[in-house]
């Protein structure tokens, strides 16, 4: 049923994109635009290619992540033309398209050549795509002004895009449920990864990003990239940051599960989740995203005080002294769309106290963001605190006790609606 609603909404999405792109072309002095889907490059010194997922603007229009050597031509007042690469090949299978309503909005053509197609009367032409795939293509390649304008068309999602992101959340949460069950059953990181993939019916290579699956102290490495095949003797915690790509759109969800008997760590998880839910409720039109980040640090300070990890300081002084940054070093989140860290989020630099923040704009209706506070026990960040002038305020014994749990992150995907926040993740949790 939910997939049918997606199909119904897609033609309206394409009509809106036509309007947005025509305006971007006119503003930058172009008559038409050719977008290359791209192709997977070969590994250096090898005959094997990297996995392919498609160029953002091409996926924005088509939702087709696996179509290499495809080209999309957009002109004012004309139906877009989509050339699909359909070689006669006994080595590889060519992807096929099911019949769907969007195909009435775009003219489909097949071809056996990989280079740019010949265009009839393109006028002043711009071409967007991976420069490695644009050799021989006419027109201006990746003009910066137009690139920025096209990125801006992706900032405010259409109803179709939000529905795709909603479905991606539902599918991912099936995997998160399976991962939780696998962890509690004593599986290794590798086994948890397999359980997630089985539940989502998505290969790791097709996911929007490499899943982060960390047990115990591995949860304290923010982008932990390995899957241990051995289960630790005492499984104390699981941090899983994993999503699903649906019609090109990405979900990005993180959950932290305490192991049996980890009462103190479990209380921290519940405390951070309470903070995270309040931060999600802040999302709405006109809200400065940087303010949400700053509010997160005050929340982390309160949790550090309540748990006894830090004492003798006010929440504000903890933030000002940089203590909360040692426990929560990353930004509160980012845009989400056909890229997991979607584009156009930083028209201005991040503030000095938040160098890793990926979004510095005021929120507007149609934007979709992640909200992901964390609290980690990272030795390289905490050791200077334990040895510095603020050491008397920091409970080293408790940090050592909890250090084996690695850390906590709770992440939801939230759409900005006219009346406030629509939490796509919590909404999906109630449906899965």
UniProtKB/TrEMBL annotation:
Q: What is the top-level taxon of the source organism?
A: Bacteria
Extract the PROSITE patterns matched here: PROLINE_PEPTIDASE
Q: Give TM regions.
A: none
- UniProt domain Peptidase M24: residue ranges: 163-416
Catalyzes what? Answer: Xaa-L-Pro dipeptide + H2O = an L-alpha-amino acid + L-proline
> What EC number(s) is this enzyme filed under?
3.4.13.9
Does the keyword section mention Manganese?
yes
Quote the record's binding site residues for Mn(2+) 1. Answer: 252, 334, 372, 411
Report one GO cellular component. Answer: cytosol
- Name under which the protein is recorded: Xaa-Pro dipeptidase
Record the organism.
Marinobacter salinexigens
The organism's taxonomic lineage, starting at the top = Bacteria, Pseudomonadati, Pseudomonadota, Gammaproteobacteria, Pseudomonadales
